[in-house]
């Protein structure tokens, strides 16, 4: 659809863009990225024919840009600029209708039913129909933005050029606009070339990205390749980290602020642990990075409070998340900052231990009830029955964990727990074999992310050794206490 071939040029003879070559296929949503002043707007101006270039060629559908007449080019290419200054005192509908100009024929231009239908449709799609008779000068920045997008869409172009289309738009309109553009590209074959400052929106919606750096192409590739930590750090000179989007296969980047509220070195230990009959809690002086299977606060996150709550054996687990959240609130814990677990065991049977090594330490807390014990290798013999009898394991690490170490910590702790059950010969009552856990066990790894960097947590690494030992010993002790209680 569009071919830019070795284009160089800029303003007053100075070459802002140098030797730019790339192609955009029909129906692509193509993002242009780059730091301030890297030449993004200059490139769009050249493609739209506003700014002549000194060298190279720009071809649209194989024909040189210079060979198109003004009106013919306007039928092919529409430009939506954040700097649109054509407000004057037109109404919204009149402004959108100007987009039909390129399609009107002859000296006596008539307004056809097709023109009217298209204008009404694009106004509906951009959510501006309700104020179509308002003067454009009375609109907010975001509303104006949508009017100019509607005007560009009314032009029914084959190529739509956008300069930061989401600028001024609130969150929901950003999403609606980009969803709409995506729909127009996939269903109508519209080709969109858009400048983005928001790398995450570009990563989420674009098929390909062109990254400009000082007027040259750094890379032209799929988002996952362009949005690489090292590349973005070098081009934008800023600290960022890449994360997968939780729902979509798209790269997302987060900024790493220089002033980080979690940099104070802290040590989580038993002085922060409170045990009552109702719940065990630990409040950390600062948020900890967590990976857990708690009823509240599961998955990965940052949490500051940790609660293991006693519930009776006949606790109704139907809407346990909602019920647990309201319980936490009633006890003064903020659910969004808390990892919450449940257990039916007596909380005073808790076992905990602080283990220290060179420059880091771990604090492990275990409650264990094994009435519900299951041999994982024979679990198909069990029917699904969610009861709160469970082993809850908390591992606080006073150190910095990699993502790998978080996952390995869970594996190592599980192995240590299984071994404790094995050595105590805890039986699965259905199969009569040695159990490996209970059906509702929960685990928490919570790291201060300050101090010593701990890359790994496999069983024979320094961190893994402490986890193995503390989890084995605490699980053993907690099971013994609970078994002892049953006997008496
Ligand atoms: N009309 C102009 N006359 C002269 N120089 C200009 C003109 N417009 C832009 N420039 C210069 O060209 C360079 C590239 O500008 P351009 O607007 O293309 O960058 P950009 O990547 O779009 O930046 P931003 O992210 O800040 O919008 C800048 O150094 C700028 O000062």
From TrEMBL:
It holds the Pfam family CbiZ. GO terms for molecular function: ATP binding. CDD domains: ABC_Iron-Siderophores_B12_Hemin. The keyword Membrane does not apply. Coiled coil: none annotated. Residues 2-239 form the ABC transporter domain. Keywords: ATP-binding, Nucleotide-binding, Translocase, Transport. This is Vitamin B12 import ATP-binding protein BtuD. The gene is btuD_1.
């Amino acid at each position: 659809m569009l071919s830019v071939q070795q284009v160089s040029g800029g303003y007053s003879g100075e070459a802002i863009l140098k030797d730019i070559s790339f192609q955009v296929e029909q129906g692509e949503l193509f993002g242009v990225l780059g730091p301030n002043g890297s030449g993004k707007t200059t490139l769009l101006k050249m493609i739209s024919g506003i700014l002549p270039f000194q060298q190279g060629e720009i071809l649209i559908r194989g024909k040189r840009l210079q060979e198109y007449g003004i009106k013919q080019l306007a039928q092919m290419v529409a430009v939506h600029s954040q700097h649109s200054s054509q407000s004057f005192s037109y109404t919204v509908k009149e402004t959108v209708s100007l987009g039909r100009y390129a399609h009107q024929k002859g000296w006596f231009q008539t307004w056809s039913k097709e023109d009217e239908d298209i204008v009404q449709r694009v106004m509906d799609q951009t959510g501006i129909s309700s104020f179509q008779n308002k003067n454009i000068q009375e609109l907010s920045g975001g509303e104006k933005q949508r009017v100019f997008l509607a005007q560009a869409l009314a032009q029914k172009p084959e190529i739509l050029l956008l300069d930061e289309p989401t600028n001024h738009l609130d969150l929901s309109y950003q999403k609606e606009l980009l969803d709409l553009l995506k729909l127009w590209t996939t269903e109508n074959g519209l080709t969109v070339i858009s400048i983005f400052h928001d790398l995450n929106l570009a990563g989420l919606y674009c098929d390909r990205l062109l990254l400009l750096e000082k007027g040259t192409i750094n890379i032209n590739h799929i988002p996952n390749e362009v949005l690489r930590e090292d590349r973005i750090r070098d081009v934008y000179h800023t600290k960022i980290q890449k994360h997968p989007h939780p729902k979509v296969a798209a790269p997302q980047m987060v900024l790493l602020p220089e002033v980080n509220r979690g940099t104070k070195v802290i040590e989580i230990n038993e002085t922060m642990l409170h045990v009552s009959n109702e719940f065990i809690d630990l409040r950390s002086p600062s948020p900890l990075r967590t990976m857990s299977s708690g009823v509240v606060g599961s998955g990965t996150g940052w949490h500051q409070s940790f609660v293991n709550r006693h519930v009776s054996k006949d606790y109704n687990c139907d809407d346990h998340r909602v019920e647990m959240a309201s319980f936490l609130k009633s006890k003064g814990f903020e659910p969004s900052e808390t990892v919450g677990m449940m257990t039916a065991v007596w909380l005073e049977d808790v076992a905990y231990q602080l283990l220290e090594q060179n420059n880091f330490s771990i604090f492990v807390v275990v409650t264990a009830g094994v009435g519900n014990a299951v041999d994982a290798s024979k679990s198909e013999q069990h029917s699904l029955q969610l009861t709160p009898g469970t082993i809850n394991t908390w591992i606080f690490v006073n150190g910095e964990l990699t993502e790998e170490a978080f996952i390995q910590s869970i594996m190592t702790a599980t192995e240590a727990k299984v071994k404790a059950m094995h050595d105590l010969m805890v039986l699965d009552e259905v199969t009569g074999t040695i159990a490996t856990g209970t059906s509702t066990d929960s685990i928490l790894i919570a790291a201060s992310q300050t101090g010593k960097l701990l890359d790994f947590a496999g069983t024979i690494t320094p961190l893994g050794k402490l986890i193995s030992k503390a989890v084995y010993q605490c699980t053993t002790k907690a099971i013994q206490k609970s078994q002892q209680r049953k006997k008496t």
